Amino acid sequence: MASNNNALSWNQAFAAPIVIITGKEELLVERAYERIRNQLLKENGNHLERVELDAGKYTAGSIATQTSPSLFAEPKLLRIINGGSGTDAFFTEIGKYLESPADQVWVVIQVGAGRRGQPSWNLMKKKYSWVDCPELKWESQKADLVRGDVRSARRKIEESAVHALVRAAGSDIRELAAVTGQLLSDLTGEITEKAVREYFAGRVESNAFDVADAVAQGRMATALVHLRQAIEGGASVQAIIGAIAAKMRNISLYAEGNIPPGDTPRRQRELRECAAEWTPRALAGAISAVALAGEEVNGGSRDQIHAVEKCLITCCRLKAGRI
User: Fold this and answer.
1) Under 8 Å CB-to-CB from 190, ≥6 apart: which residues?
2) Which contacts of 198-207 are long-range, i.e. CB under 8 A and separated by 24 or more positions?
3) How far apart are alpha carbons 286 and 308 in whole angstroms?
C-alpha cells in the first residue's frame, strides 16, 4: 500500500508523461519502473528507446538533449535516478522541461534517498502521477508482498506458509521476494507450510561459484538466494565478485571463439552453450557492471552487499534484454 491517499502503490504504476517515484523500498521502486517500462514496450515494441540519467551527476543540457525529437520520431523512456540528490542544473532544467513536456517521451523520476528539492517534489506529486514505495517494516506488509507475488503468478499459498516465509526470510525484502519466486519456480500447485519448511531446512550452503553460475544463466532469484547463503556461509563479497568476474571473462572468451587450454569437454560444452545465450551488448554491459562492483567492493563501499546485489541484478537483466 502507498503511504499517502494521493499516491499509487508500485503495482498500480502506469506510463504517463511524467511519473514521480518516491520511497525507501528499492525493490518496489524497481518493480514500479519495470511495470511502466513493460507497458511501454508492449505498446511500442522495439521502437522504444530507453535512456537513464543520474540527477546526482547531472550534466547541463542532458534533459534537453534526451527529450529532443529524434530523426525518426521514435518514442523514448527517460529514467532519471537519484532525483533527490540532483544538482542545481538538474532542478533548473527539469523545471523548464515540465513547463512543456515533449511528445512521445515518458519521464520517470526516482527521487531516491536524497533530501534536496523537497518543495519541488511536493508540488510535482500533486500535479503528476506519483508512485510511493515506502519501506516494508511490518510482518503484515511483508506477508502482503508474498501474497501479491503468488497471486500474480496465478498460484495459491497456504496462509501458514505465508507467515513461515516471512519469519524465515523477512529480514531482507529482496531475499523474501527471491525465495518466493524460487518456490513458485520449483513447486507445482499450492505452496504449503511444509514445503516452505523443507526448503529452508534443506538448503545447502552456497559458495561464490554458485552465485556466478546463476548470474551467468540469468537466474536472478536463484542468484540472490545463493548470494545470501554464500555470505551467511562465510564467503567474502570480494570472492563472490571475483568468481562472477572470472565467469564473465570465460563466457567472453567462448563468445569470441577462444577456448582456454585445459578445459574439459563438459566445461567447454557448458560455456559454449552459455555464451550463445548472451548478446555482445549484454555481455559488454555485464562485464562493465562487474568491474564497477569490484571497484565499489574493493574501495570500501559502505554497503558492499548492496553493490554485489545491484551488480548481479544488472547482469541478469542485461541477459534477459530488459536493460
Assistant:
1) 155, 156, 157, 158
2) 200/168, 200/169, 203/229, 205/229, 205/230, 205/232, 205/233, 206/230, 206/233, 206/235, 207/233, 207/235
3) 12
Copy the grid coordinates of residue 271: 560455456
Cell numbers describing residue 27: 525493490
Distance between CA atoms of residues 139 and 155, nearest Å: 21
For domain 10-132, which architecture applies?
3-Layer(aba) Sandwich (3.40)
What distances in angstroms separate CA 1 from CA 28, 174, 257, one per listed residue? 11, 17, 50
Rounded to whole angstroms, the Cα distance separating 122 from 118 reads 6
For residue range 205-262, list pLDDT tens digits in order.
567 888 999 999 999 988 998 898 888 878 889 989 999 998 999 999 998 888 766 6
Question: Which CATH code, of 3.40.50.620, 3.40.50.720, 1.10.8.60, 3.20.20.70, is assigned to 139-201?
Answer: 1.10.8.60
Packing angle of the helix pair 193-201, 159-169 (nearest 10 deg): 30
Q: What CATH number should be reported for the domain whose range is 208-319?
A: 1.20.272.10
Model confidence over 43-55: pLDDT tens digits?
998 789 999 999 9
CA–CA gap between residue 146 and residue 33 (Å, rounded): 19
First vs last Cα of the chain: how many Å apart? 27
CB half-sphere exposure, 219, CA atoms < 13 A: 17
